[in-house]
Amino acid sequence: MSPARLEAFTDGVIAILITIMVLELKVPHGADLDALRPLLPIFLTYVLSFVYLGIYWSNHHHMLHMTKRITGGILWANLHLLFWLSLVPFVTGWMGENHFEPVPTGVYGGVLLAAGVSYYILQLTIIAAQGANSPLAEAVGRDFKGKVSPILYVVAIPLAFVNEWISDAIYIGVALMWLVPDPRIESRLHE
Amino acid sequence: MSPARLEAFTDGVIAILITIMVLELKVPHGADLDALRPLLPIFLTYVLSFVYLGIYWSNHHHMLHMTKRITGGILWANLHLLFWLSLVPFVTGWMGENHFEPVPTGVYGGVLLAAGVSYYILQLTIIAAQGANSPLAEAVGRDFKGKVSPILYVVAIPLAFVNEWISDAIYIGVALMWLVPDPRIESRLHE
Amino acid sequence: MSPARLEAFTDGVIAILITIMVLELKVPHGADLDALRPLLPIFLTYVLSFVYLGIYWSNHHHMLHMTKRITGGILWANLHLLFWLSLVPFVTGWMGENHFEPVPTGVYGGVLLAAGVSYYILQLTIIAAQGANSPLAEAVGRDFKGKVSPILYVVAIPLAFVNEWISDAIYIGVALMWLVPDPRIESRLHE
Amino acid sequence: MSPARLEAFTDGVIAILITIMVLELKVPHGADLDALRPLLPIFLTYVLSFVYLGIYWSNHHHMLHMTKRITGGILWANLHLLFWLSLVPFVTGWMGENHFEPVPTGVYGGVLLAAGVSYYILQLTIIAAQGANSPLAEAVGRDFKGKVSPILYVVAIPLAFVNEWISDAIYIGVALMWLVPDPRIESRLHE
Question: Å from B153 to nearest chain C CA?
Answer without folding.
Answer: 24
